[in-house]
Give the backbone structure.
Amino acid sequence: MTEDFIPDQTPDPGTPHPANTPSEPNRVPLKILVISSPKVVNSTIHTFYRLGYAEVSEWSKPQPTQNPGEVMSVLSRRIRID
């Protein structure tokens, strides 16, 4: 089942990444994880879209979890903090 997951695209996972970079001051990473049945995950993703928070295409493809009938999807973005 591990081959179903999207591989980490980080070049060197052992290297810590700063919370914000000079090109993005006051921005920190945010990940939203939705875990449920495929129907509920899809509905939640579309709710975020209707609210204007995230495009459907910004979410990862739903991936199966260890629980039968359950999937997860992740939205990753950088948000501004003051």
